[in-house]
């Protein structure tokens, strides 16, 4: 079988090195006169995916999840994770060195208040913490009579001998045919928003916002086509773009120079200080602006308006070209999924497939489209009990043979016209009645989101319960959000829109989200059904308000072997039949041979 190109199955976690690396860090802290240090799993931009040189938490502890934070004191250390990673952290970390703590039950600030002593100095890297995040640490230190000390030069970097070099991937132009709106028009829109806010400038610290604004893409992190950098957009006049200049070809530099002053990243501090010295008020993104940049600006005399970045909402509402691109990408991706599912149906019952085999095969079918740029995240391919881990990532060590029961695969692709993310749960052999019951309840929740209509102004938090009701009726639930926002050839996880208890941003026409309720029986199996959806306007006779609903964008059969029709209403069965008819209509012409024959059977009407 071919190898995966865009994802690795190497086991990078090495708990055995935790003790020696923690000891080396402690020696460095003593040398600097510090009693402890905070190590977040992030970079200077608060990115979800970070470059290898920014994987400080993984290097120190062995933990490779997408969110976590460690605190190392002179005689104690802890690592904080959320509910997604409570199992994984104990498998990857030496718990004799780093005590696992739950982020909600034992927040880092509360943990520090109990352990810091008067006069202690807790170090932190102000490049890696937001302004608000640093304030929370300061408050905890103050309650304990300790001091939070910003460091110059991260002490982890001082003891990380083979630390990788920073990435320098080329910056490329994202064509207007895909972007839909020119960078000049986007900049004019941002400047108009600054007029409304009363800010003299916007400091763009989120690379996603920078990439969207200037219609550029890059390759500085895995799975998201991001160029690292910053920008300053004044309310009036010419913007400045700060990127490593060796990333720019002559063509790209010329195009960007028509829009902005293009300077090296090292010039950012000087320009911020000049803006501050002019006593200006500037907007900083509360989610991505580092404490160091905000402090630098304020110390120079500026007034920092720390709040929501206006680009986030602009980027979240997709224009006609982005929507058309997403539809094309999903149709292409749907054909790859059908080819994979047909292949899986042939191979799985022979008992030779593993989770890695399935992951490699699906990536291969996507590469066969000729349009794949990358996967949008490492595929979650879980067999049996591994499917019950919502954010499971298969490695050579964890790789499990696919046996009778349930197999779950959550995967996505980056195409230049769109980003995809889809999950299918597949029966291997004959599922148990309990599996069919749970799957059908998850499907009912999925259908409830797919068919809901709601007035303008409603947020994802108000819709989240629709997906949970069928599970709640049986005393069941799931512990993740129902859906996240999606970028346009950008991050597979994009805010501020989300279907979640925390999703307070009102949904607007043009926003894209995932619809992915699930159910997980620890140690046995897991179920998730995910399609991407688009918020669209709906016409309802006699409606007194503007009404929205969702268009489904993802197309691949939902496994009928796991459906229990007796649990479903006529309307739910009608939705499933109509969805499968649409799959046959859109994907049927794109597949041939065994895949075409498999599709006709897999997407048949439920009563046939």
Automatic annotation (TrEMBL):
<feature type="domain" description="Creatinase N-terminal">
    <location>
        <begin position="21"/>
        <end position="151"/>
    </location>
</feature>
<feature type="domain" description="Peptidase M24">
    <location>
        <begin position="327"/>
        <end position="536"/>
    </location>
</feature>
<dbReference type="InterPro" id="IPR032416">
    <property type="entry name" value="Peptidase_M24_C"/>
</dbReference>
<dbReference type="InterPro" id="IPR000587">
    <property type="entry name" value="Creatinase_N"/>
</dbReference>
<keyword id="KW-0645">Protease</keyword>
<keyword id="KW-0378">Hydrolase</keyword>
<dbReference type="GO" id="GO:0070006">
    <property type="term" value="F:metalloaminopeptidase activity"/>
</dbReference>
<dbReference type="GO" id="GO:0005737">
    <property type="term" value="C:cytoplasm"/>
</dbReference>
<dbReference type="Pfam" id="PF16189">
    <property type="entry name" value="Creatinase_N_2"/>
</dbReference>
<dbReference type="Pfam" id="PF16188">
    <property type="entry name" value="Peptidase_M24_C"/>
</dbReference>
<dbReference type="InterPro" id="IPR033740">
    <property type="entry name" value="Pept_M24B"/>
</dbReference>
<feature type="domain" description="Peptidase M24 C-terminal">
    <location>
        <begin position="547"/>
        <end position="606"/>
    </location>
</feature>
<dbReference type="GO" id="GO:0046872">
    <property type="term" value="F:metal ion binding"/>
</dbReference>
<dbReference type="InterPro" id="IPR050422">
    <property type="entry name" value="X-Pro_aminopeptidase_P"/>
</dbReference>
<dbReference type="Pfam" id="PF00557">
    <property type="entry name" value="Peptidase_M24"/>
</dbReference>
<keyword id="KW-0031">Aminopeptidase</keyword>
<dbReference type="InterPro" id="IPR036005">
    <property type="entry name" value="Creatinase/aminopeptidase-like"/>
</dbReference>
<dbReference type="Pfam" id="PF01321">
    <property type="entry name" value="Creatinase_N"/>
</dbReference>
<dbReference type="InterPro" id="IPR000994">
    <property type="entry name" value="Pept_M24"/>
</dbReference>
<protein>
    <submittedName>
        <fullName>Aminopeptidase P family protein</fullName>
        <ecNumber>3.4.11.-</ecNumber>
    </submittedName>
</protein>
<keyword id="KW-0479">Metal-binding</keyword>
<comment type="similarity">
    <text>Belongs to the peptidase M24B family.</text>
</comment>
<dbReference type="InterPro" id="IPR029149">
    <property type="entry name" value="Creatin/AminoP/Spt16_N"/>
</dbReference>
């Amino acid at each position: 079988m071919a190898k995966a190109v865009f994802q690795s199955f190497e086991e990078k976690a090495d708990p055995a090195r935790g003790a020696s690396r923690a000891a080396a860090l402690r020696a460095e802290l003593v040398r600097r006169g510090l009693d402890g240090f905070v190590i977040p799993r992030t970079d200077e931009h608060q990115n979800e995916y970070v470059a290898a040189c920014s994987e400080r938490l993984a290097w120190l502890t062995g933990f490779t999840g997408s969110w976590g934070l460690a605190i190392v004191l002179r005689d104690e250390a802890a690592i904080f994770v959320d509910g997604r990673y409570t199992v994984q952290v104990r498998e990857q970390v030496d718990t004799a060195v780093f005590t696992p703590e739950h982020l909600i039950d034992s927040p880092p600030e509360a943990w520090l208040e109990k352990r810091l002593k008067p006069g202690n100095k807790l170090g932190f890297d102000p490049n890696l913490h937001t302004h608000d995040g640093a304030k929370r640490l300061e408050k905890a230190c103050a309650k304990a009579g300790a001091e939070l000390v910003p460091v110059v030069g991260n002490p982890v970097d001082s003891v990380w001998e083979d630390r990788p070099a920073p990435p320098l991937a080329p910056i490329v132009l994202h064509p207007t045919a895909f972007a839909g709106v020119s960078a000049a028009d986007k900049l004019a829109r941002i400047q108009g928003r600054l007029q409304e806010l009363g800010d003299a400038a916007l400091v763009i610290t989120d690379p996603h916002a920078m990439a969207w604004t200037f219609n550029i893409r890059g390759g500085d992190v895995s799975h998201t086509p991001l160029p690292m950098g910053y920008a300053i957009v004044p309310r009036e006049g010419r913007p400045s773009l700060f990127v490593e200049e060796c990333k720019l070809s002559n063509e790209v530099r010329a195009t960007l120079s028509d829009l902005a002053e293009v300077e090296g990243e090292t010039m950012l501090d000087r320009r911020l200080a000049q803006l501050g010295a002019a006593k200006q008020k500037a907007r900083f993104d509360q989610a991505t602006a580092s404490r160091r940049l905000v402090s630098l600006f304020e110390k120079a005399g500026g007034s920092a308006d720390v709040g929501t970045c206006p680009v986030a909402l602009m980027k979240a509402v997709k224009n006609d070209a982005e929507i058309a691109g997403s539809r094309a990408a999903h149709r292409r991706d749907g054909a790859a999924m059908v080819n994979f599912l047909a292949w899986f149906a042939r191979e799985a019952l022979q008992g030779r497939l593993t989770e890695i085999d399935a992951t490699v095969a699906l990536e291969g079918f996507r590469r066969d489209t000729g349009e794949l740029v990358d996967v949008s995240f490492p595929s979650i391919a879980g067999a049996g009990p591994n499917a019950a881990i919502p954010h499971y990532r298969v490695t050579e060590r964890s790789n499990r043979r696919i046996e009778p029961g349930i197999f779950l695969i959550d995967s996505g692709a980056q195409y230049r016209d769109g980003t995809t993310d889809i999950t299918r749960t597949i029966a291997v052999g004959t599922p148990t009645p309990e599996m069919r019951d749970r799957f059908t309840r998850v499907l009912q929740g999925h259908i409830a989101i797919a068919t809901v209509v709601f007035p303008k102004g409603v947020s994802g938090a108000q819709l989240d319960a629709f997906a949970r009701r069928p599970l709640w009726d049986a005393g069941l639930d799931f512990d993740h959000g129902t859906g996240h926002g999606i970028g346009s050839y950008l991050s597979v996880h994009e805010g501020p829109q989300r279907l979640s208890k925390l999703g307070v941003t009102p949904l607007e026409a043009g926003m894209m989200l995932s619809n992915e309720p699930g159910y997980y029986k620890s140690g046995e199996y897991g179920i998730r059904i995910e399609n991407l959806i688009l918020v669209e306007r709906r016409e309802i006779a006699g409606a007194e308000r503007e009404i929205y609903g969702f268009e489904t964008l993802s197309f691949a059969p939902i496994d009928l072997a796991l459906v229990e029709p007796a649990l479903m209403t006529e309307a739910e069965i009608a939705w499933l039949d109509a969805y499968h008819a649409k799959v046959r209509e859109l994907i049927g012409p794109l597949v041939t041979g065994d895949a075409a024959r498999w599709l006709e059977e897999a997407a048949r009407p439920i009563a046939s």
